[in-house]
Write a sequence for this structure.
């Protein structure tokens, strides 16, 4: 199969990237990050999550962030909503501040489902169903994130059949598209392809995205493996920020800068200005007091300085 000629990247940095950050990050910094990402050409941004602030304190400013962002035409802003309480909070603001898309998030592993959202896979689908219905009734798009599609911190290897089972449940409640997430970054290309293929039995190739954490340094290879299957929607995090609070030791998503560098080098269009993206990664990393976790960023900045 020929590789896709264009790729749509969803930057999940403001949400996945920052949710696990121990130091408080002011809402103004998060808002500025969203603005810089859209100025760099990102057309999909995962902004925040409407989850319990007791579980994930860093996302407790969700409404403030959604209120503060300056919307740009053609950009899709998404937020995580695990239940009706989260969904209602996401639409409590005036319509102009509603998310364009909500994300329900489940897991292919029972143990991870319990740790992350405090319920079984079956219960999670029962909670998601009314959220999906309510969102669709209000004209809000719905995505489903599927965690631990390759490996789980508690259960180890995850069989593709479990991924297919969850994808089928997501499809059954009306989720329009799904993310195949390697939450702890243990996947290697063939395993990731098996998880994607199990998902592609339920969703079309345009409805599936890759979400690869880079814990074992495999995320770019896994992205290429996904492209080989025609999967052209991918999630990444500027400066490689992040990790999931309920997946101990898991590091951030693959850095958006590294994915863009690879794709542009292969002649694949992303619509993203790599230089502006690198500056965005520097901005948020400086705010956090660290270096961007992106090899392409480091190399290009070294070259700029010489
Ligand atoms: P629960 O305790 O089972 O919920 O939590 P509950 O319905 O029993 O309610 C308990 C308390 O939480 C109540 O408050 C509720 O009001 C409150 P209290 O009466 O004790 O004061 N509550 C909420 N507050 C705000 N927003 C809400 C909400 N729901 C209940 N939406 C819940 C269930 C899902 C809320 C909880 O387990 C939770 O917040 N978990 C956090 C999950 C999370 O954010 N994980 C990280 C994101 S997922 C991820 O990173 C993976 C991904 O990137 C893909 C990948 O890489 O794998 C997407
Ligand atoms: Mg993630």
């Amino acid at each position: 199969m020929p590789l896709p000629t264009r790729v749509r990247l969803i930057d999940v940095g403001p949400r996945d990237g920052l949710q696990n950050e121990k130091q408080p990050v002011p809402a103004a910094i998060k808002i500025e990050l969203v603005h810089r990402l859209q100025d760099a050409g990102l057309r999909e941004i995962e902004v925040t999550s409407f989850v319990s602030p007791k579980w994930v304190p860093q996302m407790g400013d969700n409404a403030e962030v959604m209120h503060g962002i300056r919307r740009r035409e053609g950009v899709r802003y998404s937020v995580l909503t695990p239940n009706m309480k989260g969904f209602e909070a996401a639409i409590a603001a005036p319509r102009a501040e509603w998310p364009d898309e909500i994300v329900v998030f489940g897991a292919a592993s029972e143990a991870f489902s319990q740790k992350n959202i405090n319920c079984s896979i079956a219960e999670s689908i029962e909670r998601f169903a009314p959220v999906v219905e309510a969102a669709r009734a209000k004209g809000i798009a719905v995505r489903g994130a599927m965690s631990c599609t390759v490996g789980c911190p508690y259960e180890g290897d995850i069989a593709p059949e479990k991924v297919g089972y969850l994808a089928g449940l997501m499809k059954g409640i009306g989720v329009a598209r799904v993310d195949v997430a390697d939450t702890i970054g243990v996947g290697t290309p063939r395993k990731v392809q098996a998880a994607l293929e199990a998902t592609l039995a339920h969703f079309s190739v345009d409805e599936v995205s890759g979400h690869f954490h880079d814990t074992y340094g495999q995320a770019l290879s896994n992205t290429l493996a996904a492209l080989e299957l025609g999967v052209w929607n991918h999630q990444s995090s500027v400066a490689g920020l992040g990790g999931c609070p309920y997946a101990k030791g898991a590091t951030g998503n693959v850095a958006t800068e590294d994915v863009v560098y690879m794709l542009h080098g292969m002649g694949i269009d992303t619509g993203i200005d790599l230089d502006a993206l690198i500056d965005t990664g520097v901005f948020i990393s400086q705010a956090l007091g660290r270096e961007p976790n992106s090899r392409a960023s480091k190399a290009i900045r070294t070259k700029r300085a010489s």
Q: What stands out?
A: The pocket of magnesium ion (ligand 2) is lined by residues 16, 181, 183, 211, 213, 244 (CB under 6 Å). The chain has one domain: 8-305.
